[in-house]
Design a protein that fits this description.
Blueprint (H helix, E strand, L loop, with lengths): L5 E7 L4 H17 L5 E5 L9 E2 L2 H18 L14 E2 L2 H11 L6 H13 L8 H10 L4 H8 L2 H16 L4 E2 L1 E6 L2 E7 L4 H12 L17 E3 L3 E3 L5
Parallel strand pairs: 1-2
Antiparallel strand pairs: 1-6, 3-4, 5-8, 6-7, 8-9
Helix pairs in contact: 1-2, 1-4, 3-4, 3-7, 4-5, 5-6
Length: 239
């Protein structure tokens, strides 16, 4: 990923339910601040590859519980029938790679594609590991579906996706969604976990848009509800 000298990094995963809940907030961030500072997506990798889990009865109950929490907290619509799907493996790498592949064709619409991919899964029940899901979405942006699929399946797409995972960890993110201000190779967390826009706005206006002497270990609101790399989706204490 070619990053500008300064950017707001959105670190998330298409198969992170709190990231889906965060989409309206992210859209507001991009609407209000996008002309002043670029907002760039970084795929975090919630359960990629070796960390993938089969969607058994235990995981289905776990996800149903957290999806309901997200729906109640954010108002985002969920369809629950997918949780009954037999033989599904909850591997988030293909969905992350789908976004990275799309970035290579239409980088200015990357966040929109990310949001549409999440809606296709959480709301519409489409398979977020099936290349046909990604192709259909790419074609809705007037991309050549076959060219998109060829790149999606390439070693280069896998390599770029792994670089996203590394970048997310390099800026200190271990749970999603997260917003990070990156400037001159220094990172400061703006928000961690689901955070209302007004809290993000306060940090953006007081710490990000105004030159600040704070270093990357300071600033940002307290952690909200998040999907964690180690324990999956969780509620923060006091949330």
């Amino acid at each position: 990923m070619n990053l500008p000298q300064e950017a707001v990094l959105y670190v998330g995963d298409p198969m992170c339910s709190w990231c889906y809940g965060f989409n309206p907030v992210l859209s507001k961030v991009e609407e209000v601040y996008g002309d002043q500072i670029p907002v760039k997506a970084v795929m975090g990798g919630l359960r990629p590859g070796e960390l993938a889990e089969p969607l058994d009865e235990k995981l289905s109950r776990f996800l149903r519980h957290h999806w309901k929490q997200v729906q109640e907290a954010t108002g985002q619509p969920f369809g629950y029938d997918f949780l009954e799907k037999e033989g599904f493996v909850y591997d988030t790498e293909p969905a992350c790679r789908a976004v990275v592949a799309f970035r290579n064709f239409l980088p200015s619409r990357e966040l929109a594609f990310f949001s549409d991919l999440q809606s296709s899964f959480y709301r519409d029940g489409k398979d977020p590991t099936d290349a046909r899901t990604f192709q259909e979405l790419a074609e809705s942006y007037d991309l050549d579906g076959q060219r998109y699929l060829e790149f999606f399946g390439s070693d280069e797409a896998r390599y770029q996706t792994s670089l996203d995972f590394q970048l997310g960890r390099a800026v200190g993110v271990t749970g999603f969604p997260a917003l990070v201000h990156l400037k001159d190779q220094r990172a400061m967390v703006i928000s961690y976990g689901y955070t209302p826009f007004l809290q993000i706005q306060e940090v953006m206006d007081t710490l990000v848009l105004k030159t600040s002497a704070t270093d990357g270990s300071q600033g940002g609101p307290e952690a909200g509800d998040a999907c964690d790399l180690d324990s999956g989706c969780q509620e923060s204490s006091g949330a």
